[in-house]
Batch of 2 targets.
Target 1
Amino acid sequence: MERRITPRQEDYSRWYLDVIREADLAENAPVRGCMVIKPYGYRIWEGVRDGLDRRFRETGHQNAYFPLFIPMSFLQKEAEHVEGFAPELAVVTIGGGKELEEPLVVRPTSETIIGYMYSKWIQSYRDLPVLINQWANVVRWELRTRPFLRTMEFLWQEGHTAHATAEEAMEETLRMLDVYADFAIRDAAIPVIKGRKSDREKFAGAVASYTIEAMMGNGWALQAGTSHYLGDNFARAFDIKYLAPDNEVKYCHTTSWGMSTRMVGAIIMTHGDDQGLRLPPVLAPIQVVIVPIWRQEQERAAVLGLADQVRQMLADGGVRVHLDAREDQTPGFKFNDWEMRGVPVRIEIGPRDVQNNAIVLARRDRPGREGKIFGVPVPSALERVRELLAEVQQGLLEQATAFREANTHTVTDYETFKEVIEEAGGFIRAYWAGTSEDEARIQEETKATLRCFPLDQPEEEGRCFLTGAKTRQIAIFARAY
Amino acid sequence: MERRITPRQEDYSRWYLDVIREADLAENAPVRGCMVIKPYGYRIWEGVRDGLDRRFRETGHQNAYFPLFIPMSFLQKEAEHVEGFAPELAVVTIGGGKELEEPLVVRPTSETIIGYMYSKWIQSYRDLPVLINQWANVVRWELRTRPFLRTMEFLWQEGHTAHATAEEAMEETLRMLDVYADFAIRDAAIPVIKGRKSDREKFAGAVASYTIEAMMGNGWALQAGTSHYLGDNFARAFDIKYLAPDNEVKYCHTTSWGMSTRMVGAIIMTHGDDQGLRLPPVLAPIQVVIVPIWRQEQERAAVLGLADQVRQMLADGGVRVHLDAREDQTPGFKFNDWEMRGVPVRIEIGPRDVQNNAIVLARRDRPGREGKIFGVPVPSALERVRELLAEVQQGLLEQATAFREANTHTVTDYETFKEVIEEAGGFIRAYWAGTSEDEARIQEETKATLRCFPLDQPEEEGRCFLTGAKTRQIAIFARAY
């Protein structure tokens, strides 16, 4: 069989594109920077959506839908916001065959139009909090794109909430950061670091931006979700006010938070190996694939019979199972094919298994014979598969965590910083007391950026690796997507 | 209490807008012709989406996602298609601050870009059929808009399939028409007529368009879903070809089919009455509301205790139930409020009910005392509520069917046709052998259009009411949204 997936060591970017192509996740569209999300990739996204949506409901949020088009003048009401987004806008200037009087922006994010609506909906403290989420497509005119990670159009959810006080809004901001971290860790098996963005990296118009940062298989960082405390910036820009119990009219404090199809890229790059995808069972479109094995025609019916019996048993038990009964492919081809597609558990059933009324399980997260479990009795198959799916889920999280730990370095001076970034890669944890200008200089010299100030900060004081100033603040630096 | 909903007889259009406003379903957006779908309205749409999505999967379809933007040149490849959609396009001419070389159209529908992708994906008969659906927003520059019914941007699904033969594609077209009818009848309790569109009314680029037509509360027709057989029109325009088993290269036959947020408008106008919404239980965000009733403070705890016990019992049984424990509103206000929001079943619990360990049920589809069931023992509440929800679902369908039958007229000459349309309204069933020009004339003179040729056609011959020609073809005419 020809080598279709470039090894990660050889060329990580090519490996990523190979996996997306071979696992049939997505494809470039004929519009520059846009992608087509194919059915298998879209089902992973549906898993992300469902996992988040459930958590949003559990934390009291409701879904709604706001327009795709935003009047240009809306964006201009918040100065930092328009400055941040103006270079990335797609603009509709013609509608129904006529030049528009006011151009319409295709939403790059919806703080402005939602802020406008909130100013109409919110009158009194009784109307607060407003806790709304939207599932939508957004457009940002990106120059360098990469499927899932950075595309001109992408799918996401954006939560927008309004509160009476700064404290409540900040609580919400951090609550949703927790929701993202919980989803990433439990559902996507991606260990993430919760942290605050530096002023240089924060959202255009926010007072403070929070992030979950993940480490990809090449040691680079990926911002997998963000939650912003907007203070009263947008409330002032859009006049979102309420009458407080003390009869004073006050500005609301608002938040926004988003996670996007980028998460699918994070899953690919956190777990994938040289054989292809490795999907966490919680999100895998197919959790278990059954590959029947027979040589002689007289074995066929018995093997397929047992395979279908097991398939039915698992499906009835709520397992997403697929029986690969293709006649024109060998078992070996099928093994590789489903490994490449990242299916967490494979079941092999041959003539001897039929005799023993038993099956063989193989887990995707451990290669070769080490990952196989022989002679699982058919009556206990469902129970054993469920356990194994939980073990694979846990195994992927542990492997990713170990990888991150092994690739996180502490440095105390800039020379070492540069060496580590260049040679070892990965995350650098270091004391930091520099300015935005210092960050810019580091990025220029090393291509590394300040990813976040982890919420989990040390008690002890240290010295900034760049300026030597005393500080209690630890930052994480890395090259990033 | 002030009258907030205009009676239907007084002004049906105003009634519709009043219901949307008072039930908090949607609101006009600051962009002309666009709406904001508010949480309660969006949950109805989520019910529509889930009901359809399940049926699409059961019939073998997969979801995917294609880009929002389509190069202008793509639309021009199918002559009828571009002619139909050109006047309605929103066009992006500026991206990232620069004038684009080729303008991008915001998709009004995706046959063209999906056709382009299919031409790359389909090589052999083994690749067929391709059965894909997309959930997306689309934009059509409409001049006269109305929330849910006709908005510039709307949410929908669009299925796009490719097949080896005309027969298979036609089977798919009718299968999806059946899926839409099944959803409309069973989930939305809307009786619909399956039929074929006339050439004048068919989709731009289709060989044949099929529709489900529903009758709204004012007797007007509403096209609630369409399924198109596209022949090889788009296959030729986009070069969607396959190598057949006989080694010949052949064009595919394709279909497309869609249902949109318009369905929410159909639900409002099929079932609503002068008190407001009436939602079919299958799609109601809240199926049961519990209103506790007490006068004296010492009754409060006992009543709320039983109310919460019943709430928990119903929730555990999978019923979408809400306990309205607001302290600042009277039971009477709450009754009206939830009736207006269309909740199918109300439970009343007062001090005497606590004594008897029983509750009162009231169904939204039957007004006043006639719709009440007294003394339902608490232990059988779940079972009785489930039965009642099924009865309300059936009741709404029966009422709507009876209304449609009562407002469907048969005519044999054009004079009567004009009288009936002007005075009685509703549907006209009549023999029809006219041309597209005849249809245009009828529309001009009566504002009625040919809604469809019902699939269910009579055996007998008759005479066209306009031309007098003999024909076996029955058509339905009506004024329509």
Target 2
Amino acid sequence: MATLTQDHLNNIQAYWEASNYLAAAQIYLQDNPLLKDPLLPAHIKPRLLGHWGTSPGLNFIYVHLNRLIKASDADFLFICGPGHGAPAVLANTFLEGTYTETYPDITQDENGMRYFFRQFSTPGGIPSHVSAHTPGSIHEGGELGYSLAHAAGAVMDNPALIAACVIGDGEAETGPLAGSWKSNCFLNPARDGAVLPILHLNGYKISGPTVMGRLPDETLTALFSGYGYNTLIVRADDPIDIHQEMAMALDTAYEQIREIQQFAREGKKSNSPSLWPLIILRSPKGWTGPVMWKGKHIEGTFRSHQVPLTDVVKDQDQLALLEQWLRSYKPEQHFTPDGKLQPALAALAPSGNKRMSAVPYANGGTDVHPLRMPDYTNYAVSVKAPGESIAEGTRELGKMLRDIFELNEDHQNFRIFCPDETSSNRLDAVFEVTERCFMEHLLDNDEHLSPDGRVMEVLSEHLCQGWLEGYLLTGRHGIFPCYEAFITIIDSMFNQHAKWLKTCREIPWRKDIPSLNYLLTSHSWRQDHNGYSHQGPGFIDTVANKKSNVVRIYLPPDANCLLAVMDHCLKSYNYVNLVVAGKQPSLQWLNMEEATKHCAQGASVWEWAGNANQGKPDVVLACAGDVPTLEIIAAAWLLRKHLPDLKIRVVNVVDLMALSPKEYHPHGMEASLFSDIFTDDTPVIFAFHGYVRIIHDLVHGRPHPARFHLRGFMEEGTTTTPFDMVVLNRMSRFHLAIAAIERAERKPANEAEAISYFEDKLSMHNIYIRECLEDMPDIRDWKWSDI
Amino acid sequence: MATLTQDHLNNIQAYWEASNYLAAAQIYLQDNPLLKDPLLPAHIKPRLLGHWGTSPGLNFIYVHLNRLIKASDADFLFICGPGHGAPAVLANTFLEGTYTETYPDITQDENGMRYFFRQFSTPGGIPSHVSAHTPGSIHEGGELGYSLAHAAGAVMDNPALIAACVIGDGEAETGPLAGSWKSNCFLNPARDGAVLPILHLNGYKISGPTVMGRLPDETLTALFSGYGYNTLIVRADDPIDIHQEMAMALDTAYEQIREIQQFAREGKKSNSPSLWPLIILRSPKGWTGPVMWKGKHIEGTFRSHQVPLTDVVKDQDQLALLEQWLRSYKPEQHFTPDGKLQPALAALAPSGNKRMSAVPYANGGTDVHPLRMPDYTNYAVSVKAPGESIAEGTRELGKMLRDIFELNEDHQNFRIFCPDETSSNRLDAVFEVTERCFMEHLLDNDEHLSPDGRVMEVLSEHLCQGWLEGYLLTGRHGIFPCYEAFITIIDSMFNQHAKWLKTCREIPWRKDIPSLNYLLTSHSWRQDHNGYSHQGPGFIDTVANKKSNVVRIYLPPDANCLLAVMDHCLKSYNYVNLVVAGKQPSLQWLNMEEATKHCAQGASVWEWAGNANQGKPDVVLACAGDVPTLEIIAAAWLLRKHLPDLKIRVVNVVDLMALSPKEYHPHGMEASLFSDIFTDDTPVIFAFHGYVRIIHDLVHGRPHPARFHLRGFMEEGTTTTPFDMVVLNRMSRFHLAIAAIERAERKPANEAEAISYFEDKLSMHNIYIRECLEDMPDIRDWKWSDI
């Protein structure tokens, strides 16, 4: 247990002062960086931006973690929940030298320091939050709630790693963070690293108090014991030395972590689950900053959230107070006259890759390996002719995922993250080789459950997403299968991850990150036993809106296409791949060779389904998504049967962005290929899996976009038959056939007759649905399903 | 304290059996509803759908709540987190007679019972979840996580109401639910009703165990004491009478609630916050259902989640087991031969509006009042000429909101829900008349904080949304101001609310519900001191995808338009109104009379900004959103100055859906008006606040959609100047002017010269940004902001 010498304590205090100085100076100073001259208005930045409130607490935690790293030689990753406390994190990367190594223009001297201050939150400089630009970070924190989930994901399969995760009491109010405390039930101390949560209570958000900040110690201790933590509380207002107290708390926490790990790694079994340590640091908001101004408290209140003194240029007294505040950190003592940190202080930080600002975990990972992939064609479904065999796409994919687990067993770098739906989504084959991970006690009736499982099932889309992000950002691979409608729960998390990826692409030193792969199944069109709440394809639109160099959207129409697409996605880096495919038994269209070619091109004419593949068609029938494909092919069949002189061409789109003009998305088809497929002016009837909006957008910029007539999900749904679903949304084969006839360039002779026949069919369907309660048919046995 | 007589206990047991019978029979039977005949395969539904696992526990809770209601005459609202347990909820509405009163075809006799069973989860029947079709419900539960927040919102300002909120252990794993426990810190026992959470632990989700289900009692008790609850545990496996135990727990909980309320309502102050009661019911999943099948446990395991016996038609032994199970509920005893519940049992349920299936709270509310609105024109900003004065739109709106609080003070039916941003969003005027609501202890330095406040600030968008939904669905009014980028946190909650509203419109007995009003400010274009993580306008797309009869999107370009739009929204019912408007000081365009007219029409030509208002223009410059409006007007000014012979027309769109063809949205402009404004074929340069995708969609179906050339947010952002933001996204006045020249129908003479001048300006800007670190300008002082 640490009993630090007075010298060591003094040095820690000095290092903390140095970092607090750099944090405050980033907010305030454009010149006079070491305060060698008296502070003048001209030294102050013209616009004061940045968040002071959380920064001194972050600096305090950081210097103490440094001490522990030096003492233990352990691997620590720093996750900064209050990412707007960038002045603190940046200050430490600067003190450790990593900032200069990463950005050589920011030298470790007076001039470098001036630029370091100037660039903060300035146009042409760096963002005001801990962004991808910050060395050592995998977590921006601008949107709060995900720090603890990121930390847990990062330590999975990284047994040597401890993620120190600072959580502000603002962030602690969010739902996703509240749901993240129980991540400890899914971390296996034998194979995974550890998360050390440090809950930093400074009492306020932007302008109001925080709930946790007002709770007494015993209430918090009870709460966290319920979550499986042993709480160590450090209070800034205690009379005893705060540094000594923090050092002891960290040493205790570290020892408890190592004890739990050693116990587990020696294969011992505990009777009761171990309590992981958690540190609560209670400190004033804006700690060590200005105490009062004009009779109002600043330190310890919401008034220090951003810039505590805002009128320093105009108000001489305030400028004096600022100078007094900045000088209280003794820059002239802690830095040499040429702006270097005093060697005695610099020696406090770890060196090389042990520096939290330089850990390889935070930039592509350590000991990383591309995923070993089996040959996806091994899992091919036999398709002798289109529409003659039935398969369940996800069940076939499950076999490939099973083999991926086996092939990469020695690297321990692949996991499935899923909200309790792996079996429901028919990926069960994976349970032949792995299990669901769970650390609570097991019961006789449990199936496929073990602390060693690599399938992470928790009924929280937020946790699945947060863990997976943490896992990927540290260089490993994964997939997130989810019910389609409920993936929108993590819309905003996806947004932030896509922004992170986009930013990383612009930062030369950022290494490649394995892609985030979504498999959305149990989709909107096949909710036979759920209903309207489970019917929502909107995630496609959310993904499509992000930067085109990071997003990919695939709608494989059958099992072989699903395999080809997933093979491609799982091998890729730096993307978000969205794959939407049903799990239900359905007709198969392409053999593996055709599927491979089709997926590579993104969209193609399915010649066997139409009758005008070469010459100019009267109408093009296009589709994207498995259910729309079935309906379009059925519509084509109906048209060929009832109106054989109508020239139709059938097109399937598997890579949605192929529709986009190339200048808007790298997967966009060349103009000539687009014209070959869709012609330049033939009317197109397009059946789409999602909301039609996005297709209207994608074809904007293509020849004659107005000729595209769309059908898709129009927010009509309930618990009903699959065929009734397409009728309700006016996307049934009959609707499509009628639309094709009405819009075809050349009117076929018996047009009216055919339309009337199709309308009759729809009337019969509606009667059938009304009569369902009388007849009680098997709704799997949907009357109109046969082509 | 309840010590129930044996008779009473027997009756409760019988009522529970009757409801369990109806729940199981809804899943299985299409005929022989009272089992008068031996059970045959022909009596079984052809497809077995529904969720049994949670149903008997829900029935158990329901009958006990009924006992308490009868004993106390209290107002209880039943919130069913496990909404897929609809068989149980529906069973109770049927037993109480409410179902028959609501749907007279489902009579209270044998034939009605048969239809009641048949309709469940059948095409043409009712959904498989507790949907808007279910009397007494304000909560569907298909997407888990929001039950407790809905319950809290429902009891706000309903002092007589107790919301009994059943939370499954699956739902308890979600982030939003975990974040909802602390709703009790925001409920004031003096003025609000109470939430009684009933955590129903049955141990399993779809196929895996639940975290909470595996935690020991003492761990859960500690956890919930940390959240401010006094936990009462009822265990189904206890040897003592489970009914007696549950009755005592409910009586205890009820007494504790009334004690807390009485204390508060008598104006007494407590030294420590009261612990609200919470009941944990531990019962087996699929309780009272089949115990085993072929050596595997069903009751008490995940195997009873949905349909516990699936082969009853084909397997004679299984059919026998089903019959034995169903008969164990003694339908022949509990129902009369003609299918009525035995009078002695029927007498157990409350009557009239006390029935939880009939409480008026769940259908439009009790004692409801339209919001009294001040005359919005009172808050008009003086605009003598366009672009000459500056105002902050949200600051003006704050004054109107302040007066709404005052005007509706006696009805206590209006609140603001906001994630700690009321001041940041410049709505502070409301703090002249009310405060932030907070129930923890207050400190000297707190500002605008009180248990009586009507501004609900919590750093959780999920809680803000959930509380507001609960508040609205019980007939009150509210508004949710939020940072634009972070509203996507509740995308999926909005989806479900929009679906609920859409469904309610199709149900004649559902009463009107006040609209859900979003005010998105601190928007993507003005994040001077945050950055890329705070830049995301995607919520517009999420809203636009929902059913057009419930969604409205407004982008008021200035303060007067914001006031006119918000007046309209706050008075409306049954919609989701999305309003996007900045908070920063900005130029004002319209006086109140003009603003009112403009907002009513949705889009109009701003004649003063163009030079071709009557004749045919060479190019139309259109805009939607405050920043795009500024840039378009500046572009028009530049064009008129540099190319005076170019005929331009400026159009502003305030009601986004006005662009849509009328068949797709009721706000869609008539074709003739659209043509009057945009012409039929003139090129349009359109600057849009959000992603351009949606405009491409909205104009699809209008004459010559390909002529619309869009500029908008293209995922470029960082901490920079407002003007740099529009440059980065190619939407600056110079970009727009160049695009207008390049696309104008008639080429002006000095075209090349003008383009080159504008390109020079952009180069100068880029140099300026690069030099910012040298010059350190005030970034509010953006060099190109003046028109």
